[in-house]
Amino acid sequence: MSSHPSSYPGRAVVDLAAIRSNVAALREHAGDAAVMAVVKADGYGHGLLPSARAALAGGATWLGVAQVDEALALRESGVTVPVLAWLYAPGAPLERAVAAGVDLSVAARWALDDVVAAARSAGVTARVHVKVDTGLGRNGVGPDELADLLDAALRAQAEGAVAVVGLWSHLAFADAPDHPTVRGQAEVFAGAIALAERAGARLEVRHLANSAATLTDASVHYDLVRPGLAVYGLSPVPQVGGPASFGLTPAMRLEADLALVKRVPAGQGVSYAHAYTTTGETVLGLVPIGYADGVPRHASGTQDRWGGPVQVGRRRLGVAGRVCMDQVVLDLGPDATERAGDTVVLFGSGADGEPTAEDWAQAAGTISYEIITRVGARVPRVVVGDAAVDAEAGVDEDLA
Ligand SMILES: *Cc1c(COP(=O)(O)O)cnc(C)c1O
User: Fold this and answer.
1) 241 occurs within a structural domain
2) Is 393 within the bounds of a domain?
3) Residue 229 Cα: closest atom of ligand 1
4) Chain segment 354-381, per-residue pLDDT in tens
5) Are residues 214 and 282 in the same domain?
6) What percent of the chain has pLDDT over 90?
7) Is 229 in the pocket of ligand 1 (CB under 6 A)?
8) Ligand 1: distance of its center to the CA of 79 in Å?
9) CATH code of the domain covering residue 349
10) Nearest CA to ligand 1 atom 13
């Protein structure tokens, strides 16, 4: 984040107090399980370090990321709590990760071998979480190969190269809580735990639950839950309930300042390909953010139906015509009183009647995860609610 004021005519306002209270709510949902706040993908677009600090202030005791570089960035910023990184390819900086005390997932034999080599050259014991594919069909070692991988991992443990601290997996249908695969995967996971324990592993943490499972299925919480989306205040199961029903508040507001307001006649084609044409004399408003800023082009409007929702004053309008790279157009109506410089809201918490990221997801035929993580790098993040966050929680004071 840059320290000089930005002239960018749009911003993502990130409320750290909301992230903090969302994590506090997730702790309640988690019961006896510890909370690993997932801060991958730049804290789901909210900023890696601010999100991490707010999550720790809310009571998370672990942080989770996909990439090794994300974990290293947390350590370089002074984060001292356990951090798990779970996705890397051959050539990743595992020696640096191990030396920095980052926990690593091991999902294949080559990964174990690379982690062992990294631990030997760093001269420290690497903490590993063995990942088993219980049915998602994505990352993880298959149940049939688990015994061999565990055997090799426990041999490396005996010589001090690694400590097998975790066994974990990920659900395919957590967002459909009654789906039979949830029970099926839980059974495979239970079998994997039994196998690991018989093989002599002394597991510190067994973990399976993402946001949806944390909120809807206490039977799969085990020792640690790994919520991501819910940390940022969105519901992973909108068909079951919105954020408020789970005690969550959306933490990001995406807004922009009108760059132009102008009167046009009836029959004016609007934006590329004239996908929208004015039906009477009206006033157009130009919103200076577009798909390069994360506004989904799939939420373009047509002649018959406005696209993605926007709050203008107290009014709810929608994108008129095509979403462009840098801008979208609104039909403000013939009686518009808005002026260039007025701020419009694409999405926010919904508390003031503004649209939410979930509304944009529906307009674009996607999920709210994609709406918040795709907000472009050039959109300034403006952090608010900082005072509510204890900067000392897990972050070295000198570096925070
Ligand atoms: C992203 C991710 C999570 C968090 O998922 P949400 O649905 O955002 O809660 C948890 N575990 C793994 C393996 C992930 O990749």
Assistant:
1) no
2) no
3) 8
4) 999 999 999 999 999 999 999 999 999 9
5) no
6) 95
7) yes
8) 20
9) 2.40.37.10
10) 170
> 271 CB less than 6 Å from ligand 1?
no
In total, the chain counts a number of residues equal to 400
For residue 286, what are the domain limits? 252-384
Phi-psi region of 333 (alpha: psi -120 to 50; beta: other; left: phi over 0): left
pLDDT in tens, 50-64: 999 999 999 999 999
- List for the chain the helix, strand, coil content (%; round to 5): 35, 25, 40
Q: Establish whether 131 is a catalytic residue.
A: no
Same structural domain, 113 and 43: yes
The answer to whether residue 1 sits within a structural domain is no
Write the pLDDT tens digit of every residue in 210-261.
Answer: 999 999 999 999 999 999 999 999 999 999 999 999 999 999 999 999 999 9
Q: How far is the CA of 29 from the centre of ligand 1 (A)?
A: 16
Say yes or no: CB of residue 248 within 6 Å of ligand 1: no
The Cα–Cα gap between 29 and 32 comes to 9
Alpha helices in 85-241 (DSSP H): 94-99, 109-122, 143-158, 180-198, 211-216
- Whether 232 is catalytic is no
| Residues 66, 87: Cα–Cα separation, whole Å | 5
Pocket residue to mutate for ligand 1, from 22, 214, 220, 226, most atoms within 8 A of Cβ: 226
**Considering just the CA atoms, what is the radius of gyration of the chain in Å?**
24
152 and 21 housed in the same domain:
yes
Give burial (CB, 10 Å; 0-12/13-18/19+) of 329: buried
Asked if residue 124 belongs to a domain, the reply is: yes
